[in-house]
Write a structure and sequence with these properties.
The structure holds 2 protein chains of 2 kinds.
Chain A lengths: L1 H8 L2 H8 L3 H27 L9 H29 L1 H6 L1 H25 L8 H25 L4
Helix pairs in contact in A: 2-4, 3-4, 3-7, 6-7
Chain B lengths: L1 H16 L1 H8 L3 H28 L8 H29 L1 H5 L2 H22 L5 H4 L7 H23 L8
Helix pairs in contact in B: 3-4, 3-8, 6-8
């Protein structure tokens, strides 16, 4: 497994990012801007599920309006996340925070595009407020986990 | 101007000598965890600001009246701003001289100031016409300008914030 990571880190593009004094830093900073959009697109729907935020609007409408921004910011996260990963692949392999982030990320993505999507796009009244609140809290917890573990990679690796 | 710089320098130098400030920067865990808390607070603040900006631009949540977007997100924006301010001040308090000599830090502060002025300008000028376009999917130019500027300025705050530790352009 480690050999694959070492191979990725030795790609010319990985080394170019790693050796530049500013490319990595700029990508890292753009990753945070994408994170802010992602957080917004998630939060408007999670707040609505909690009966806060746009509570005067139908849930499915809020979810539909947020969706293009959710998808766009996830694409932005991947476009700015993958270059960071390939340039530091061997360090990431050894960082427990990187793996924790990946577990949270897989769980968050699966949850968002299966259960959460099902509940937010369901016909009005199909799921009770208890389920809606649970979905919102799980969504917030999983994505906060992704953000926290992600930020810790840079400190303790 | 030079008097302002001198006053700021002496303020930062004074805080730098406080025992609590020294204790913060000597702890190996305080800084990373306060940074983590700052990032999570930023998500709440910037996330709810940016979604409102998308509505101002007419590219998001267009079926929701602008007044509703504004009113319903406001408490979350304030909560996020409060948390980001507390964690941010803690970071500066713990190592003031690291920030004082850092042009990227001051770029962030300046961008925040302009973003604040932009929000005030919208509140005191464009918002007066809100009743005319509250439910319209395409807000007027002034609203789009406020939304676009807000996105650009807050993105700049986030970019500069993340770049502070690189401290380029140091003399």
């Amino acid at each position: 497994m480690y050999d694959y990571f070492a191979a990725i880190a030795s790609w010319p593009v990985s080394r170019a990012i790693n050796e530049s004094s500013w490319i990595f830093a700029l990508i890292q900073a753009l990753h945070l801007v994408a994170l802010a959009f992602l957080a917004g697109a998630l939060l408007v729907v999670d707040l609505r599920l909690l009966g806060k935020g746009f509570s005067q609007q139908p849930l499915a409408r809020v979810a539909r309006d947020a969706r293009p921004w959710l998808v766009a910011s996830i694409i932005g996260m991947i476009l700015t996340g993958v270059p960071q990963f390939i340039s530091l692949a061997t360090k990431e392999f050894e960082s427990p925070y990187f793996w924790n982030k990946m577990y949270f990320l897989v769980a968050a993505l699966l949850f968002t595009f299966t259960i959460r999507q099902r509940v937010t796009f369901a016909p009005e009244g199909k799921f009770g407020p208890g389920i809606a609140k649970a979905v919102a809290l799980i969504s917030i917890a999983l994505w906060t986990g992704v953000a926290i573990e992600g930020r810790l990679i840079g400190f303790f690796s | 101007m030079s008097e302002l710089v001198a006053a700021l320098r002496s303020l930062f130098e004074t805080v730098n000598e406080f025992e609590s400030s020294i204790a913060l920067r000597e702890s190996a865990y305080v800084f990373p965890w306060v940074v983590v808390a700052h990032v999570v607070s930023m998500c709440l603040f910037a996330g709810t600001i940016l979604m409102m900006d998308l509505r101002l631009l007419g590219v998001g949540y267009i079926q929701t009246p602008m007044s509703q977007v504004q009113r319903r997100l406001f408490p979350w924006q304030i909560a996020g701003m409060t948390l980001a301010t507390i964690t941010g001040l803690t970071l500066v308090y713990g190592n003031p001289m690291n920030y004082f000599a850092n042009i990227i830090f001051w770029t962030k502060m300046l961008s925040m100031g302009i973003a604040g002025l932009n929000a005030l300008a919208f509140h005191f000028i464009t918002e007066y016409t809100l009743v005319q376009w509250d439910t319209s999917p395409t807000p007027p130019f002034g609203a789009k300008l406020a939304g676009g500027l807000s996105i650009a300025l807050w993105a700049n705050v986030i970019l500069a914030g993340r770049l502070i530790p690189y401290n380029w352009f140091q003399n």
